[in-house]
Amino acid sequence: MTIAVTNLRVEDKLYQNRYLVDPGRPHIKVRPHESPSANLRALTHICPAKCYELNDKGQVEITADGCMECGTCRILCESNGEIEWNYPRGGFGVLFKFG
Amino acid sequence: MIEEKFDAIVVGAGMSGNAAAYIMASNGLNVLQLERGEYPGSKNVQGAIMYANMLEKIIPDFRDDAPLERHLVEQRLWVMDETSHTGIHYRSDDFNEVKPNRYTIIRAQFDKWFSRKVREAGATVLCETTVTELVRDAQDKVVGVRTDRAGGPIFADVVVLAEGVSGLLGTRAGLRKMPKPETVALAVKEMHFLPEEVIEQRFGVKGDEGCVIEAVGTISRSMAGLGFLYTNKESISLGIGCLVSDFAATMESPYVLLDAFKNHPSIRPLIAGSEVKEYAAHLIPEGGHKAIPQLFGDGWVVVGDAAQLNNAIHREGSNLAMTSGRIAAEAIVGVKRRNNPMTRRNLTIYKTMLDNSFVVKDLRKYKDMPALIHTNSSNFFTTYPRLISLAAQNLMRVDGTPKIEKEKATTRAFINVRSRWGLVSDAVRLALAWR
Q1: Class in CATH terms, A10-95
Q2: Residues B138 and B10 in one domain
Q3: What is the nearest CA distance from B371 to chain A, expressed in angstroms?
Q4: How close does chain B come to A28, measured CA to CA in Å?
Q5: pLDDT, one tens digit for every residue, chain B (435 residues)
Q6: In whole angstroms, how far apart are CA B261 and each of A31, B181, B239, B267, B311?
C-alpha cells in the first residue's frame, strides 16, 4: 500500500513503527501539577510522537505508548522535576527496523 | 546472572560501543556489552552517512560484508525559501574509486552487522538488558553495573559508557551534566521507499552511486536547523532537525516541519509516490567543543554521543563516535597490558589520545560556531535565505531592466534588511568562528 506523502497525521506516522509496549509500566511520568511550566506546555507541541496533551483543566498528561525515546522531554523537564524519565525495560519500547 | 568479573563492560551497542567492544575483544580482553534494545540497532537512529576511513581503522576489510547502501558521488547544499532553492553541487567521478570514501547506511542493518563482528571478536553481547545503575566501591571507583535483569551487580575493571546522547547512567551518577536545550538538536526522519531505478533516474546516479542533499533556510522557520535527504539503495532517508531550545521557544511541531519540507516544491518531486515505512526521532549533540564533558574517571570512560562528540558543522557524528570508541579501547588495552589499575590517572591517556586526533582538533576549530548560530538563527536561517533567493531571481528574470539597476536593487535589499553594519558584523563573526 502506498501512503500519500502529504498531510500524514502523527498517529499514522507512528503506526509505521514497531513497538513492544510494557503494559502498566510507562517509562515516563508527568508529576501532578496545578499549571504546567512553559517547557512542559511546549511538549504538547514539540514532542515528535505527540505523547503530551493538555487536559480540560489545562494540565499536561502523557501517553507514552508511541514514544520514540528521543529524550527531548527529559532535556526540558527532568531537572525541574516535572517529569520522571527512565528507559523502558530491556527489549521494550520502540524497535526501529531501519533507524 | 553473570558471576565472573569482566575486564570491561560496554554500555550500548551503537557506533562508539561497538567500536570499543570490538577493539578490546580483538586484543584479548574479556568484554561484556549490554544493549537495551531487542537487537543491536533497534534503539539507534542516524541520517545516515558512514565514513569509510574511520571504520577501516577498526575493520579494514569491512567492504567485504558490511551492509552498505550507496557510495556518495554528489553532494548538494541548498539554501531554501518557500518556493526556491539556491544550490551548490559538487559531483565528481573521482568518488567512483575502488575503496569509496563515504556511504549511506541503514543503521539497524549496519549495527547488526557490526555487532556480529563484535561477537566474532570474542565479546559477550547481551541484548534486552537496560543498565540501571553504576556500582562504585568505597573509594568511589566505578567497579560494575546493575541491570534490570534478575541477579546482582556485574563487575568489571572498567565501564565504557557508550550510552548515547541521552545517556542516563553518566548524568545520574554525576559524571557529567545533562545536555542543555541549546546544545542538542531534535531531528525527525522518515524512510521513503522507491524502486531502485526510480531513485537512479531522479538523482542521475547509477549502480551503487548515491547523492546527498542538505538544506537550510526557511524550512526551519527561523530556528537553527537543517533538512536532509540521503539516497539509499531503494529508499530515501529524509528528515529535519532544529535545536531543542528553539523548538521550546517557538513551539513548532517537528512533524509539521517535516511535512512542510516534504511538500517543498524542490523536494516533493524527488519523493513522489514513495511508501513511508518508518518515522523516527532522535537527539543530536550540537554543543561542540565547549560541551565536551569530563571524559574519564576512576573505572570509567565516556565515548560517542554521550560525550557530545559530534561535528555539527560538517554533520559528522558516527565517525567521531567510532573513533572515540576505538581510542578509548586502545587506551584501556594499553593500561591492561601494563597490568595497571583502571584509575583516573591511568585512563588520562584516553583524553590525551583523543585530543591529538581529528575528533577534538575539528571540534576545537569550530568551538565558537554553536553560539554564533544559536544567537543568530533568524538571520542565518530566514533573512539571508530569502535575500539570496530574491537576488537569484532578480538576476535570472529577463524583463528589460538594465543589469546595473538589478544589481543596485539586490544590494539595496540586503542593506534594507540587515543594514551595512549588520552585514559586515555577520560576515566578520562568521569568519572568526570558522577560522
Answers
A1: alpha beta
A2: yes
A3: 18
A4: 13
A5: 556 799 999 999 999 999 999 999 999 999 999 999 999 999 999 999 999 999 999 999 999 999 999 999 999 999 999 999 999 999 999 999 999 999 999 999 999 999 999 999 999 999 999 999 999 999 999 999 999 999 899 999 999 999 999 999 999 999 999 999 999 999 999 999 999 999 999 999 999 999 999 999 999 999 999 999 999 999 999 999 999 999 999 999 999 999 999 999 999 999 999 999 999 999 999 999 999 999 999 999 999 999 999 999 899 999 999 999 999 999 999 999 999 999 999 999 999 999 999 999 999 999 999 888 888 888 999 999 999 999 999 999 999 999 999 999 999 999 999 999 999 999 999 998 988
A6: 35, 23, 8, 7, 24
Residue B216 and residue B196 share a domain? yes
Q: Is residue B364 one of the residues assigned to a domain?
A: no
What is the extent of the structural domain holding B397?
369-434
**Partner residue opposite A79 with nearest CB, options B46, B129, B178:** B178
Contact B38, A95 (CB under 8 A): yes
| Beta strand extents in B244-396 (DSSP E only) | 275-285, 296-297, 300-302
Bridge partners (DSSP) of residue B142 are B136
CATH assignment at residue B29: 3.50.50.60
Q: Contacts of residue B255 in chain A, CB cutoff 8 Å?
A: 8, 10, 13, 48, 50
Same domain, B192 and B281: yes
Q: What are phi and psi of B385, to 5 degrees?
A: -55, -40
Residue B273 shares a structural domain with residue B313: no
CA pair distance B8, A59, nearest whole angstrom: 45
Distance, C-alpha B188 to centroid of its chain: 13
What CATH number does the domain containing B196 carry? 3.30.9.90
Residues B234 and B194 in one domain: yes
Contact with chain A for residue B362, Cβ under 8 A: no
Instruction: Determine the Cα angle at B268 with ends B262 and B269, to 5°.
Output: 155
Residues β-bridged to residue B133: B146
CA–CA dist A78, B121 (Å, integer): 39
The grid coordinates listed for B240 are: 529535519
Which amino acid is located at B410 in the chain?
Answer: T
Chosen for mutation from A41, A53, A68, A72 (greatest number of chain B CBs closer than 10 Å) is: A72
A66 touches B: beta carbon within 8 Å:
no
Extents of the domains making up chain A: 10-95
Q: Which has more confidence, B72 or A1? A: B72
CB contact under 8 A, B278 and A97: yes
What does the alpha-carbon distance between residue B227 and residue B120 come to, in Å, rounded to a whole number? 37
Q: How many domains would you assign to chain B?
A: 3
Predicted ipTM of the assembly = 0.93
Q: What is the mean pLDDT of residues A3-16?
A: 71
CA–CA dist B44, A96 (Å, integer): 7
**B413 in any annotated domain:** yes
Nearest-by-CA chain B residue for A95: B42
CB B226 within 8 A of CB B233: no
